[in-house]
Amino acid sequence: MKPRILILCTGNSCRSHMAEGILRAAAGDLVEVHSAGSKPAGYVHPKAIAALEEIGLDISAHTSKSMNDFLDRDITTVITVCGNADQACPIYPGQMNRHHWGFDDPAHATGTEAEIMADFRRVRDQIRLVFGAYAAGLRERMAGRI
């Protein structure tokens, strides 16, 4: 069984889904990736879907889930991408690692449609850098080079 990674945010509508899509694309052959929220919004933000579509990733089938949906599953690593989720995060069965990498919430962006979309792209690119590096580190560790 592949190690299971759970990416948490408050609403599970933007950042955690972008991170899930990016990490799944970068290391889905090595790890099982999920995302959830401490207070799920009930939807995935259309601009998060659009921002990932621009880089060739399809998260349109993702759904907003509660972190409590995963309490009965072995979670190897929990990664929180916002401060509220980091504070609300429970300890999961089998959890060995926990990381907190905070990103701005693009759902709170204001301005024109173009300015708001630019904010989603900025956060997407930050997530891509951090989770791309994390995926590279996973590959190195699993190949026994670290």
Would you give an account of this structure?
- With 146 residues, the chain is α/β, with parallel strands linked by helices.
- It has a single domain (4-142), classed as Rossmann fold (3-Layer(aba) Sandwich), CATH 3.40.50.
- Helix content is 39%, strand content 14%.
- It contains 4 helices and 4 strands; from the N terminus they run βαβαβαβα.
- Strands 2-1-3-4 form a 4-stranded parallel β-sheet.
- Helix 1 (15-27) runs parallel beside helix 2 (46-53), helix 1 (15-27) packs parallel to helix 4 and helix 2 packs across helix 4 (113-142).
- It is globular and about 45 Å long.
- It comes from Prosthecobacter dejongeii.
- This is Arsenate reductase.
- Its EC number is 1.20.4.1.
List the helices and strands and how they pair.
Blueprint: E1 4-9, H1 15-27, E2 32-37, H2 46-53, E3 77-80, H3 83-88, E4 97-100, H4 113-142
Parallel strand pairs: 1-2, 1-3, 3-4
Helix pairs in contact: 1-2, 1-4, 2-4
